[in-house]
Design a protein that fits this description.
InterPro entries: Metallo-B-lactamas (IPR001279), RibonucZ/Hydroxyglut_hydro (IPR036866), Sec-metab_biosynth-thioest (IPR050662)
Largest sheet: 7 strands, mixed
CATH architecture: 4-Layer Sandwich
Helix content: 10-25%
Distance between the termini: 36 Å
Order of helices and strands: EEEEHEHHEEEE
Shape: globular
Radius of gyration: 14 Å
Number of helices: 3
Organism: Limulus polyphemus (Atlantic horseshoe crab)
Strand order of the largest sheet: 1-2-3-4-5-6-7
Number of strands: 9
Protein name: Endoribonuclease LACTB2-like
Strand content: 25-35%
Pfam families: Lactamase_B
CATH class: Alpha Beta
CATH topology: Metallo-beta-lactamase, Chain A
Structural class: alpha/beta
Length: about 140
Amino acid sequence: MSSVIPRVSQLSHRVIRILGCNPSPMTLQGTNTYLIGTGKKRILLDTGDTGFPEYINLLQQELSEKSVALQEIVVSHWHHDHVGGIVDIFRDIKPGCKVLKLPPASEKKDDKPAENIDYTYLKDGDKLKTEGATLR
């Protein structure tokens, strides 16, 4: 018997999981995305896939309820269900923040899901700090 996890879960005082609302055999109930930190600016780890307005609505709701904004978006890896939502977030939430990702193994056309968004490559050992959390 499988259990259903909530679309939004407070995992700890500094981490909120928001499901990407893109269920599939690979994503199960949806891609896990995470709002990280405790302050007015938070890090979003992964963005779900493009074309899932329910996810964007959940993310907007969490940002609004907590009175917080996105400091940075970090992409854990470059599968479409982790990076595709960047386009929708920049269009609908307009965060005005950096998008950080690991350098590509090779330069491929699909390494940039949106041409009008700048990406900053992370290096091994980089530290990302936000109030209440540090990621390395």
